[in-house]
Write a structure and sequence with these properties.
Layout (H helix, E strand, L loop, with lengths): L4 H28 L10 H55 L6 H22 L20 E3 L5 E3 L7 E5 L2 E4 L4 H6 L7 E7 L7 E3 L3 E2 L2 H11 L2 E5 L5 E4 L22 E7 L2 E7 L8 H5 L3 E6 L3 E6 L8 E7 L2 H7 L5 E5 L4 E6 L10 E4 L4 E4 L2 E6 L8 E7 L6 H13 L6 H61 L3 H26 L8
Antiparallel strand pairs: 1-2, 3-4, 5-12, 6-11, 7-11, 8-9, 8-12, 10-11, 13-20, 14-19, 15-16, 15-20, 16-17, 18-19
Amino acid sequence: MRISTAQYYEITAANYQRNFNKAIATSNEASSLIRINTAADDPIGAGRLLQLGQQSAALDQYGTNITNTRNALTLQETTLNSIGTALQRAKELALAASNGVKTDADRKAYASELGQIQQQVLGLMNSKDANGNYLFSGSKTDTVPYSQNSDGSFTYNGDQTNINLGIGDSMSVATNTTGWDAFQQTINTSRTQTTMTAPAVDDGRVVLSNGTVGASSTYNAKFAGGQPYTVNFLSSTQLQITDALGNDVTAEASQNGLISNANGANQTVSFRGVDLKLNINLKTGDTNPDAVIAGHSFTLSATPDSFSTSRSPGNTSTSVITGSSVTNQTNYDNAFPAGGAILKFTSATNFDLYAAPITADSRPVSSGTVVAGNATAAGVTFALGGGAPATGDQFLIQSNNHQTQNVLDTLGQMVTALNTPIDGNPVAKQQFLGAIETGLGNIDSATNQIGSAITSIGTRGQSLDEQSATNESLSLGNATSQSSIRDSDPAEVMTRLTLQQTMLQAAQLAFSKISQLGLFNKI
């Protein structure tokens, strides 16, 4: 095959240009020691680098998430520890105030300090982070967790939602601690109540406290099913307990109902998980203790559900709910929304009760008409005051079954007890001691609940540490893999560059020699 001179020059120039470009690329690679700059350099390697780059970016974000979560959990733990310290001081005050030598004036001073502790605890529960978000509101970070109601009780306004943040592939942790978990699930030890039924006028000789739940498992398994109970004093040394059906269940009481008639004795009667404080107060002239104590009787039952109500800000009338109570237990148990309800008026006299919150497809669970100023829905009667409701008025209703109680309410009840005069009144003093005992039990429950929340934070912190170490190992492996694909071997690159440069020099030399082999050079 013959090749013309023009073709030879074109082919030689093209080959030289191609080899020159390779030499330039190798020179650049030698300078940067990066083998893949574009996908054309190594399509498979470039695709793998893209995947590794995405993993690296994710690992970097996981690292940021871990740092942010660790900072958030540290702030929550510090706040919870501060609340625990405040509650310990409250417990010390309550114990000191219940000392028998303290006076009403002393107890008022303790009440003042305990009220300050309550406000301190409220402030800590409503703490914010550096971004202005509430720590304990769940996902409602712009909503204040706790607010005080008109009756002095406190309501939790947050939710139970955990805000989860990814810290690794298929791994996430909750960055927040909800007020529901830390404070609202505190076991309430004062879930029972006693009411004297005989004599008609309390003579002060027998004082039986409302009781505290000492064994929750026994209480839950046995107490509720038999209430209300009747506690009859057969003599000054023996009591009898019968259940709602009239069955004698005294055998389940401590010492089979045997009590002491020692004057002013502070003794404990335990029954189906409930501990009752009993005082026998014999008076001067009571020569026959059995005669004056026999015939005293009390009812013992679980504290009935109560309700907190609030007006909707959009209400146009001045109507308010002044009171509420369960009037039909069966309807209440079957129909009243456990998560809260909304009473909505469709006219001045007609109303519907909805499960909260109301949505476009909500249907009322109960409807009715106001009778004698009362609205009865789902077994609950609400007393209305302040004028007739207007069409569209809404009232938010939250039920409280007293199984749990936040510590703010406990502190408030203890402040009330400390402010109540008892000097010179042994019966009032015994009732005061019962209230303080209940408060101390609830403070212990609150402390335990806070401790559980701190333990949860510690567990999540440990997970962060372990995942952080895992992510660091993955990051190192990722960097190594990227380097092995992307980076060049210096020795190989320099050898290749030297070879390519030598080939260019040889091509130049060959071209100059061949170009001189013309026919005219032989004449």
